[in-house]
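Need a sequence for this fold. Nothing fancy.
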């Protein structure tokens, strides 16, 4: 027990300290005092009180109090104005307890006091700047705990920014808010590409043999030919080729027949098999009795020899026009929650050899196909931030790589083996990466490309190909024009889960055809007739259709 002299000295000093503090916080007491009502009971009352730092609370007791004991006056202080009414003052951050005793020394009230930061100003500021938020603010020491719910992520982000500025550092604020709006985002991407190709090839080649021999000395010959190619494409791709030839031919004998020991060869027209053929002149025979004559016609029998052209002229005209049109359409869709990344790939992977140490080769796989990756952040239904990466790629031989062959030789330099080089295909890619912000159900053109490339080449005989009209006989022209138009459109949707019976897939209603229908009718699937002939009896699907999304069902 504390003696009366000691108790009186302690209470006197306590009251003096409380009066000094009251001089500084009198305005706070008048505006922010919170009376604590304690019901009359024979049992000891224990209550908990959260007191803002620098603020006070009014305390009303059910019976007269004689002694007030504060365990740590540096954290909280008590001032009794009457025997039943007093004030509690928050001095420093921390926890303490206060005991109220009556004249018999019995406990009237025990208060567990926690002095925390004053959050009334923060609450008023949040209510002003984010009135749609319904939150609670709890102060634990020098830290803040924000709880409650907000209509969307944008409001929650605004509340957190205000609380971080108030606390002085983001690590002093604990976010325990819940968001009422849907946080799952489905992204629909449309990649549409049109490619137009025009190829034109026109060329003429001429050739002449021995036409100019008469202008040259004896035993001289002359051949003339043009070879105009198509360098833009590398070769003639198709189309039509028209060839024409004029030649003066004769038969060269494979052996020469002589009529005797002389050196003069026999005339091929008079002796058999000379010059590669035999010639029998007409023979006339007459009957001496009847004096009737019969004439047998001449006979020519070709023998061994070869056909030669003494003079030849050739011409070749090649012509091609090709028009191509290619359309590429990809529509990947993927769903994820706010703030989490998602990836989608419909395609495959092809191996690529990679050189390692000690002449070793490993294999890496490179993906290709339709790919989509994005990270959404939902601020509200009208504000969705998207970090998007979309790609459409395919294997192409245009950018392929061919490793040369390796020849293995022995010690004498002879080739013993050949190791064929590797052929690695290339990839034709259309890729776009960006960060955008748009509302749910709204579309935005993320990327677009209009590209036109033209290649043409003209080959021919120098000087001659530039002649008007006649220059076409000595030249060729190769022309290529490629036009590409690419558009990438993105559309985000805020989505929610549903039941399985409300979802449809492309395989719904599919049944394979029976063997008789497959063999006789050549059907691949079974035809199911509707239960009612009237289409108006078909019930409409539940819900509201808001966007062109989902699968095509036929």
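Here you go.
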């Amino acid at each position: 027990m504390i003696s009366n002299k000691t108790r009186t000295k302690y209470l006197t000093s306590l009251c003096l300290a409380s009066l000094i503090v009251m001089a500084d916080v009198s305005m706070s007491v008048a505006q922010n005092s919170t009376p604590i009502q304690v019901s009359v009971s024979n049992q000891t009352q224990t209550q908990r009180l959260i007191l803002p730092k620098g603020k006070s609370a009014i305390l009303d007791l059910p019976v007269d109090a004689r002694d007030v004991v504060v365990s740590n006056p540096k954290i909280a202080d008590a001032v009794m104005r009457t025997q039943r009414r007093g004030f509690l003052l928050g001095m420093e951050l921390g926890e303490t307890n206060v005991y109220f005793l009556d004249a018999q020394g019995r406990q009237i009230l025990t208060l567990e006091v926690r002095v925390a930061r004053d959050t009334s100003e923060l609450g008023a500021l949040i209510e002003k700047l984010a009135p749609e938020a319904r939150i609670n603010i709890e102060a634990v020491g020098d830290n803040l705990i924000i709880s409650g719910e907000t209509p969307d992520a944008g409001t929650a982000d605004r509340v957190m920014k205000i609380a971080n500025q108030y606390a002085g550092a983001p690590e002093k604020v604990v976010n325990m808010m819940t968001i009422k709006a849907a946080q799952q985002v489905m992204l629909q991407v449309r990649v549409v590409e049109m490619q137009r190709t025009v190829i034109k090839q026109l060329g003429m080649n001429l050739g002449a043999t021995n036409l100019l021999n008469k202008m040259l000395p004896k035993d001289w010959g002359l051949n003339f030919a043009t070879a105009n190619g198509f360098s833009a494409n590398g070769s003639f791709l198709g189309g039509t080729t028209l060839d024409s030839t004029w030649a003066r031919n004769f038969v060269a004998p494979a052996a020469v027949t002589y009529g005797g020991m002389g050196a003069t060869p026999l005339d091929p027209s008079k002796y058999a098999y000379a010059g590669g053929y035999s010639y029998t002149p007409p023979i006339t025979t007459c009957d001496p009795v009847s004096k009737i004559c019969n004439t047998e016609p001449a006979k020519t029998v070709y023998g061994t020899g070869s056909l030669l052209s003494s003079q030849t002229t050739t011409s070749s005209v090649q012509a091609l026009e090709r028009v191509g049109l290619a359309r590429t359409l990809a529509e990947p869709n993927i769903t994820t929650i706010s703030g989490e990344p998602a990836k989608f790939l419909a395609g495959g992977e092809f191996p690529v050899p990679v050189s390692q140490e000690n002449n070793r080769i490993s294999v890496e796989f490179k993906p290709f196909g339709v790919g989509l990756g994005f990270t959404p952040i939902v601020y509200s239904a009208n504000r969705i931030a998207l970090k998007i990466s979309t790609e459409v790629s395919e294997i192409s031989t245009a950018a392929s790589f061919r490793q040369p062959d390796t020849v293995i030789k022995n010690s004498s330099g002879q080739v013993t083996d050949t190791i064929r080089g590797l052929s690695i295909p290339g990839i034709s890619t259309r890729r776009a990466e960006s960060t955008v912000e748009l509302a749910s159900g709204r579309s935005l053109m993320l990327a677009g490309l209009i590209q036109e490339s033209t290649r043409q080449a003209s080959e021919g005989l120098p000087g001659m190909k530039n002649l008007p009209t006649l220059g076409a006989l000595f030249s060729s022209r190769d022309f290529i024009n490629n036009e590409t138009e690419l558009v990438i459109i993105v559309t985000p949707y805020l989505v929610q889960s549903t039941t399985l019976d409300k979802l449809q897939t492309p395989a719904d209603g599919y049944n394979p055809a029976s063997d008789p229908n497959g063999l006789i009718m050549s059907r691949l699937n079974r035809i199911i007739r509707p239960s009612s002939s009237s289409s108006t009896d078909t019930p409409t699907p539940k819900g509201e259709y808001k966007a062109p999304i989902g699968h095509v069902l036929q």
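For context: The chain is about 10% helix and 50% strand.
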